[in-house]
Amino acid sequence: MRQHVNPLSSNFNQIERIPSLSEMFCDSKSNLHLDIGCAAGEFLFDLALVNTSWNYLGIEIREKLVKKARKKLVEREIKNLYFIFGNAHNILNDVQSKFILKNLKSLSFNFPDPWFKKRHYKRRVIQPEFINNLSNSLQKGTLISVKTDVKDLFDYMDYTISNNFYFKKIDKKDINYSESFNPNNFQTNREKYVIINQLDIFERIYIKI
Ligand SMILES: C[S@@+](CC[C@H](N)C(=O)[O-])C[C@H]1O[C@@H](n2cnc3c(N)ncnc32)[C@H](O)[C@@H]1O
Q: Helices 42-50 and 63-76, interaxial angle, to 10°?
C-alpha cells in the first residue's frame, strides 16, 4: 500500500456527508475526542473499548484504511467510535462540521507525516490557517495533544501552535484523569515502533484559553 497521499490533491476537495453526533454515537452527550490521521484506527479501538464513557472520532485521508476501520467497527458493534474519510482540513473547515469542533473535549495529532522537503511543508497537517480555524471554533479548555519522533517537525508544530494567542502549553500532570482521553496511556502503532527502536518522542499539550 502507498504510504503517503498528497492531501492537497483535488481528489479530496469533495467531502462526504458528516452525520450528526447522535447518528455517530450511541450516547451523543459523552466527552468527545478527535484523532487526526488515525490510520486504521487501532489506537482508537483500544481507547473506545476501555473508556466507554468517551466518544472517539478518527479522521484519515487514506480510504483503504478507513474502510478497514469501518468494517471492524461493524463487526465489533462498537457504539462510541466513528471514522470519517478525507483531508482533515477540508472536513473541519466545512460549515457542516462546525458542531464537531464545538463539541470536542480534546484532539490529537499522533506522529503526523513529516514531509521532510521544504517545498512539501504545505502538505503537513498542522498549518497556521488550520490552527487559526481551531482557535476560532474550539471551546475554551479544549486540549490539543501533539506527538512525533521527528524533532524538526515538532519544532515546526510547536512554533505554529504557540504562535496562536489562544493556545497555551500545559503540563501533562495538570490534567485531571477525567479530562484525559487516554488515561490508560495506550500507544499508537507508530509510537510502539518508535519505542521498540528506542527513538525519541517529542510531545506537548496545549489548552485553548
Ligand atoms: C505517520 S501516520 C501515523 C498514524 C497514527 N497516528 C500513528 O501514530 O500510528 C500519519 C497518518 O496521517 C494521515 N494523514 C496525513 N495527512 C492527513 C490529512 N490532511 N488528513 C487526514 N489524515 C491525514 C496519513 O494518511 C497517515 O495515516
A: 30
